[in-house]
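Consider the following input, taken from an annotated entry for Pyrophosphorylase (Arthrobacter gallicola).
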Amino acid sequence: MSRVLSTEQAKSAIGQVQSIINGGFTDQIAALDAQGRILSDPNVWDGPLAAQFRGSTWPETKAALDKAREELEQLRGQLQQISQNIFSAGGGA
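Applying the prediction step yields:
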């Protein structure tokens, strides 16, 4: 038989992780995306380094940010499901 344990500290930590994902972190990723799009406009910023930013730096960074956002959303969903399952099984709310 495997052990199942979920304390109030675990419940609180799950809530904090979800709050960070839902609020601050995904908002920050969106803010970075907005600024990256501005800097990718040659009418705003141009030159050799700006062209390098547009051509490779920003597309690679944006792809990594999009992947991070997707993985964080998956984590948030997994934590929600795990939390519900544990607290339902343990009689907690």
